[in-house]
Amino acid sequence: MEGNRMKANWQAFLSERDKEHDKLWGKKALAGFGEKPALVLIDIYYSVLGLKREPIFESMKLWPSSTGLEGWAAVDRTAVLLVAARESGIPVIHVKGMSGIEPWVRRKREKNPAMTEELRKLGMEIVEEVKPLPGELVIEKSAPSAFHGTPLLFQLVALGVDTVICAGETTSGCVRASVVDGATYRFKMGVVDECCFDRTEASHHMNLYDMHQKYADVVDLDYAVNYFNRIAAKSAVNL
């Protein structure tokens, strides 16, 4: 793999005090990944993107949780990551929210009369660009973390996985919750910067920073693709 390819786009959101603290205590190198990765895609469904590609404030008129064009850009990059994982034989697991349960987000919103029951159901579908292939596991969750109350941990253990590479949304919500739980279970956690998305820029970048300092290696898309390719090449040699 290529050197120390951590991302650092969060610098613009650090105060001067934070930057000084980062010089003294901040993470200086990647902790590194293992030899048995899995790719976990989190909550990449239409309700957080809309059915068509629109700027965020336009999309929010119908889809209040939309992440707009930034979200779609991350989806397109995730599609590249997904192809690399599949071609390399890396297990892919899709995780999405369970419909029909009390939401965990503690805020009230006015119901939009244009949001029909049919649209609500469609909103819970994984977008076409990264839709699961036959045989790929799809897990529904009832909490922010992909681990909480789901069989994800058991599946990763059964596969012998030591490294979990995460992408999806929101960076500050379900991605972060999943990364913290994954680190708690002692998996080597990775987060692909360009393949994660959020509703506000500050929450996206600062949560990447925080995850990188404590729970994961935040890397760019090229690094993650090269990592998958290296794993595939090593597996081919060992056949």
Describe the structure.
Keywords: Hydrolase. Belongs to the isochorismatase family. This is Isochorismatase family protein. It holds the Pfam family Isochorismatase. It comes from Paenibacillus cremeus. With about 240 residues, this protein is α/β, with parallel strands linked by helices. The protein has a single domain (about 35-100, about 115-239), classed as Isochorismatase-like (Rossmann fold), CATH 3.40.50. The protein has eight helices and six strands. A six-stranded parallel β-sheet has the order 3-2-1-4-5-6, with helices on both faces. Helix 4 (about 115-125) links the parallel strand 2 (about 90-95) and strand 3 (about 135-140). Helix 3 (about 70-85) packs parallel to helix 8 (about 220-239) and helix 6 runs parallel beside helix 7. It is globular, with a radius of gyration of 18 Å. The two termini are about 20 Å apart.
- Name of the CATH homologous superfamily: Isochorismatase-like
Structural class of the helices, strands and pairings?
alpha/beta
CATH architecture: 3-Layer(aba) Sandwich
The third-level CATH topology is Rossmann fold
Q: In this structure, how is the largest beta sheet organized?
A: 6 strands, parallel
Number of distinct helices: 8
Q: Quote the beta fraction.
A: 15-25%
Mean pLDDT across residues:
92
Number of strands: 6
Task: Return the string of H and E elements.
Answer: HEHHEHEHEHEHEH
